Amino acid sequence: MNAVLSRPPAAERPLVDAAFLADPYPAYRALREAGPIHWSEEFFGGAWLLTRHADVEGVLRDARFSAQRTGGWVNQAAAERGELAGFQQLFARALLFLDAPDHGRLRALLQPAFRPEALARLKPEIARIADELIDGLDDADEFDFIAQVARPLPVRVISTILGISGADRAEVMAWSDDLAAFIGAPEPTHEQARRAQASLLAMTRYFQAQISAKREAPDDSLLSSLLQARERGEIQGEAELLAQCAMLLFAGHETTRNLLGNGLFALLSHPDQWALLQQDSSLVPGAVRELLRYDSPVQYTGRRVTTDLMLHGQRLRRGDLVLALIGAANRDPARHERPEELDITRADPGALSFGSGVHVCLGAALTRLEAEVVFGRLLARWPHLQLASTEPRWCANPAYRGLAALPLRHA
Ligand code: HEM
Description:
The protein is α+β, with helices and mostly antiparallel strands and 411 residues long. It is built from 18 helices and twelve strands. The chain is globular, with a radius of gyration of 21 Å. The site of protoporphyrin IX containing FE (HEM) has 26 residues, from helix 14 and helix 18.
């Protein structure tokens, strides 16, 4: 009760509406200018919103803010007690939602597959996949970049890393979409939670079959190495193993797609920036970093407060949820000069798109590599690439910002 009394009144207008989904940046700016911290009842029954770069980074690097936050989230969406227990059991075990020491133990097991040497070995395969997808579009007058390239490429890449087959089937992609709809909903409905549970369980059955195949024929894939870790007792139980597999597949599906889509849309909407890349392809890696800042595929993440504390004059209570608005932090004028401008030549965009601290994105270098390969190929193959529609259709997901379709012409 005290916690409620200590909170400022909830915002009068909802933050997330159709205009926000199309372009969240004016709302972030208004929020940031109104003050550093806000209480909103719109997210998960109530959460603190942080908009400044320094605060978002600070919370993500501070152990008083725990990554363990799925319990309330899942249970709130359940119609009856225990209905979503299967979901919660798996969901809560994913690296993303763990604190020390479990977090460090599991991260160390996953990390080798994402190290620079491993990525250097993978690069020719990423280029091969990109070429195959792009070659198939040579004769098309108009095509949807999301459906034809941005969606299939990341799933093929993560399948190669994990050493799994069939993850690019429509059914498997739909499981990921159901999880993204649940994770990205400010207030998940009962139906969204039930679908997410069914899809997560289907995904684990799919992985159980892949695991059986790997037991028969071990190889040098990440899944084989995780299986060996399970046999050595470094992964505790099958549920812990399955949770990491599902998380990696989900991350592989959802986020890179949106970097490719949002990034290409931003470049083609700023022809001067596209022209700069054409003149000098060595600008591509810097451009990818700036595109991540300019329109981040992950717009926010959450933490639970583990101890009562004061922040910007507000009393935060143990158990409160804090949302770190990455999308807002990336446009904070206190950190970024001309934050609303896309400038691919920025010396150091310094964005928080991959988070910060111990949970900083494990796939950051991988996803940047994928984007560098794809944008590099597009520039070389189709210098006259253009938007076929100037009216983008954004997905209704405030956390995972991405385009539902991106129609293009290359003639
Ligand atoms: C544009 C693409 C991507 C973006 C913007 C992104 C963003 C993020 C962010 C913001 C976090 C931290 C979340 C938090 O602290 O609560 C994170 C964590 C993570 N990401 Fe990514 N991600 C991307 C791609 C990928 C890919 C391709 C993979 C793997 C295949 C991946 C795997 C992970 C994992 C495993 C974590 C959890 C790390 C931990 O908890 O230690 N991500 N990502």
